[in-house]
Amino acid sequence: MNTEHGQNAGKVALITGASSGFGLLTALALAGKGYKVVATMRDLSRQGELIRQAELAGVSGLIHLVTLDVTDAASIDSAVASIIESFGRMDVLVNNAGFAVGGYVEEVSMDEWRRQMETNFFGLVAVTKAVLPVMRRQREGLIINVSSVSGLSGFPGYGPYAASKFAVEGFSESLRHELLSFGIRVVLVEPASFRTPIWGKGLEGMHTSVDSPYREKLEEVLTYSRRSAETAPDPIRVAELIARITEMKAPKLRYPVGKGSRLLMIGKALLPWKTLEGIIARSLKGMK
Fold first, then answer.
1. Residue 54, helix vs strand vs coil
2. Domains of the chain by range and CATH?
3. Is 75 in a helix, a strand, or coil?
4. Which of 128, 161, 267, 288 has the greatest CB tally within 10 Å of its CB?
5. pLDDT, tens digit, 9 for 90 and up, residues 23-79
6. Catalytic site residue from 161, 214, 224, 255
7. Considering only CA atoms, which of 38, 126, 148 is closest in space to residue 88?
């Protein structure tokens, strides 16, 4: 048996939003390291691609599919209870489920704002709360919250998404302080743009109108977003980073990943706001 697999034999990892994108690739990466991976998704009819890739990778025996809707308390409780009943422990939680609501603030309905926060933030908090008693009793565990560079710096046209990710950032900071003494580590992974379905869906569902006063500005944002998506790197980089973090004894709080992510962190910390504002405005105009 591979030594790496031997080290992780019996360890259990729960991943939300595992039907596509980062979640799917992370499920494969952790199974490849020997974890028993509980890959959850709201609709199990979307399991096909994960199953196909797991069979190709030879890890299908380590992937267990469970229905979990992060916006449904009963679904969360049922999923976590079944995992503990089956495996008796919880070593890694990857909070990945999420989507992007796009549009200028004035034109996004309050229902859409609430829908964004229910999944990206409140859902993440609810799943975390459900696994904490288990990890606390074990006196060990790792919680990886998939945030975004949008949780570090807001971008025009994506106010709801940025707000949800800023909330994840603050929650994770507080949670890390609270859990250190229990041997539970909390980590933020902050991807820049990658080739995942989230942005395509976000661009298709952009909230606006034909006579929008923001029409010209929104077109700049859309052009920039499309160009970024076209040149975005392979999302496997994020899954591989998450897999590496699970092997670390003392991981840091933040792991920015992707083109420009570290530069954005440095710029936000060191540059005056007006300078950063000007850089973003010029970047958008340059895409016309």
1. helix
2. 3-285 (3.40.50.720)
3. helix
4. 161
5. 999 999 999 999 999 999 999 999 999 999 999 999 999 999 999 999 999 999 999
6. 161
7. 38
